[in-house]
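Worked example 2:
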Amino acid sequence: MTRVRTRLKLGLAAVLAILVTVCGYSLLSIQRLVRTDAWVEETQETRSVVLATLALLTDTESGQRAYIITGDTTYLNAYARVEHRVESNFTSLERLTYMYPVQRARLNLVRPLMTQRLELMGEAIDARRAHRGAAVIASLLARERNVTDSLRRALDDMDRVELAQLGPRRERAETQANRAMALVVIGALVAIAAALILAVLLSRDLDRRLKSEALFHSVVDVLADGVFVRDMTGRIVECNPSAAHILGLSREAILGMEEGTIACFREDGTPLPVSMRPGVNARASGGRTRGEVMGVRRPNGEMRWLLVNAAPMFAPGTGEPAGVTTSFADITRRKEAEAAVREHREQLQEFLDNAGEFILITNADGRILYANRAWRQTLGYLEDADVIGRPVSGFVDPACRARYQDDQRRLISGDALHDVETTFVARDGRRVAASGDSNCKVEHGIPVAIRSTFRDMTERNVVQEQLLQAIEQASAANRAKSEFLANMSHELRTPLNSVIGFASVLMRNKHGILPPQEIQYLQRIHDNGRHLLSLINSVLDLSKVEAGRMELSLEMVDLGDLVRATLAQMESQVHGRPVTLRAAVPATLAPFRADAGKLKQVLINLVANAVKFTDKGSVTVRVTEHPITHDPLVLDVIDTGIGIPLDRQEAVFEAFRQADNSTARRFGGSGLGLTITRSLCQLMGYRITLASEPGAGTTFSVALSSEAAALPASPSPAPRFGGEPAVLIIDDEADARLLLSQFVRDAGCEPIAIGSGEQGLRLARERRPALILLDIMMPQMNGLEVLERLRADPALAEIPVAIVSIVASEQRKRAVGAVALIDKPVSRTEIEALLRRVLAEPPLDKRGALHALLAETVPADTTVAP
């Protein structure tokens, strides 16, 4: 019994010893297992952060490229969020690699690369926003691509190190687990107590395992890339949510799928055989497959493009193949962006190559970086290789080379050149004249490229030279014709004067020896001679006008008296005919400055023409006056004659032409009257038009003023100024201020005279005058500057300003905003007319003021009804 007890005790002792030993070894194994699992967790978490950082690279790169291509700012959302996420990832990596100097050293290389890449991305985006050109953006993208490649390599190195450690650590964890299980089984067989203790320890270990597995799934599930796990038969046994989202399927539909179930395609759109898919290759070869691009079609028919990586899985400890893990990123947007970039480049290249102009881009040294097809083909160079890299000066005519090189120096210094002319030399020796514009692109103060656009001027120059020669020949012929006509007219008038004079002498029949029949013959000789003399005088007048030898003699003319005197002189032409000459002249018509003789000749020609083509009715001379100033605006000659067809109205102003041949046969005439009339009108600055209808008469209108096109429908009442409105006079000459003040005061207004622009602006703000009379030529601040400041001040912009200066008409284009331009010396009549026109009318709004100015400065066309 004692022996049994002893044995039992020994057995218990042995059991206890074994139990203690098993427990000790079990605890040691479990600690090692926990530590190994922690390493595995750190490795997996490190890989997850690295992969997430790589995914950020892809997202930001896609968003940036899409924005640069399309200009759509929505693509920058990923870029805007990346900085915070990258910093968070680096914080996690610093924590995870704290105890691993090698990985920590790689991380120290990755951080500046990421910072540099973000800076380059920002510069490229800023360049796109500033439209700095494709070359700048391409340079930034190239630099960014180099940094990105370095960054990817560094991150891939970190991932490879972690992945290399993952397998051994997992094997170590499996070994530790197996050892712990063996000790637990032995302990369970030895004693229930040891089994219970081991069960507790195993339960704890199991919890840790489950937590570790749950952590692994949580990492995989948040990845943006899709992940498949296939067993050795090719069936999918696990997938993450991103895989289901990318493929457009549910997780339940994906699990259990065989190889070949999902349709895959190459980049050219052809089906991808199952044997060539990355997962199959990885399972068959036992090696990794990286960076494969293939397309998959979703159930809704949408094509998605994937960047696929595949790696085989091996059973822990045995190293036997256990399956394949496949990860894939959706790069559809990147593919679309790349396609859009290619299309844009192709369109740009096609546009540049098909442009009719010459387009050249050179570096700062003048060597060709790009030459479009038009330039190359014109010079006889078919391939880019024939010209790229060669200096442009080598294609320039030696006679123009020095000037061209000087232009290049000006461009590099910052000047933009326009209408630059040069001559290129073609391969066959032809000279090609060109003209165009050039500018230099500068980055950070350094000239980068010179861009030039030229037009082929060779044919135009030839045509222009031919045209100039033709014009010169025509001018010479016209001068010779005019000189011939002038000389010939003089030679003809001398004998005609004798013919007419002697015929007049004989017609008197002083001795009474000529019978009546012969006197009638002499009368015909006399009349035809005078007609011929009139014709010669017309030809002489026309030749003088065309030769530019006719001068104006300007004076103040009373148009009403001129019209009445002319009609009285021509009464004999309608004597005995049912035609009445009438004058419709306003009694208040004011005198105006004109050449009385030539204006009378115009009136005589128009009335004579109207009388000749009017069998019965009337010929009326009507004058239209300005409703306020009473200046004559339009002179109309209206008849009730035969009229002129619409298609022949322009021909009546041509020399020796009438409406048609029947008119010439019926009414006679040389056809020079209206030609001379229009020439005289053009000489005096008038514009003549006609309105006619066959059988209803004709109206010839002579516009004597540019205001003729803006006549009011009815005369305005005479202005009445109440309360002596103030008129501000700004003029540096004391005599001018005194004279203008007197004119203003006589008109019933209050003059305020000042001698400088600054003081004038101050008084304008204080007094708010009804009108400002402004001189231009003043010291310190000239009148144009004063006008500009008046118009820029909202409080003064509505005050009407009239320019009164010796250079008023010369500054018409610059005096924008002035209501009138009056040249010195100024008369009382002009000032009174101005005051009546400005102060009697309500203020115009800005659009009305602009129309008023245009009406004064731009000659208006008189519209004539057919």
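The CA atoms of residues 576 and 616 lie 11 Å apart. The mean pLDDT is 77.
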